[in-house]
Amino acid sequence: MTEPLIGVLALQGDFEAHGRVLRRLGTHVREVRTPEDLDGLDGLVIPGGESTTMTLGVLREGLGEPIRELTAAGVPVLGSCAGLIMLDREHLAVMDILARRNAFGRQVRSFEADVAMEGIDGAPVRGVFIRAPLIAEHGAGVEVLAEIDGHPVAARQGATIAVAFHTELGTDDRVHGLLLDEVRAARARR
Ligand code: GLN
To answer: What is the domain extent for residue 106?
Structure first.
């Protein structure tokens, strides 16, 4: 099998850092700005950034419905931070979750924490939380993968994974590795 082609939504936010991680893991990377850019993708990353701005970009480019179709077709997706917000019921409605934005308090704009995450063996993941959301509500089809102070900060629904923190800033590529595991499984099914 050739290396998978992973799209990174590149309307706004830190899409370049995700591209670097994915290339390091040996995938092809395509920046996604229009619905045509979704054609033929094996996976998609929705990066951190600012979810209001990103939502306006999605509306402007008509990307909402095509992204929902892609996920409905079983293409794996990873959303990080604002990307988690984008996946929730009130945004792209790809996951049965409700995000609470800026959930860790104004005074704590940014912090790092060790996150023990289901599906990731070995040391916990070093999560960088930057005005991060948490998952305030989730439906029965959603599996919580990690919590901070009893609040879900990572979850999976089918082949879609959402994390409230940034994982693309350091050298620990294991969360992207989870996405690639899903991508390989989805390709094997085709
Ligand atoms: N606070 C941002 C939002 O609400 C998300 C922050 C991030 O992606 N680092 O969109």
So the answer is: 5-189
Q: For 140-183, what is each residue's pLDDT tens digit?
A: 999 999 999 899 999 999 999 999 999 899 889 999 999 999 99
Q: With a 6 A CB cut-off, is 50 part of the ligand 1 pocket?
A: yes
**In sequence order, which residues have a C-beta less than 8 Å from that of residue 25 and are 6 or more positions away?**
173, 176, 177, 180
pTM (2 d.p.): 0.96
Q: What's the CATH code of the domain at 181?
A: 3.40.50.880
Q: Please identify, by atom number, the ligand 1 atom nearest to the C-alpha of residue 14.
A: 8
Active site residue 91: no
Task: Reply yes or no on whether 69 is catalytic.
Answer: no
47 Cβ below 6 A of ligand 1: no
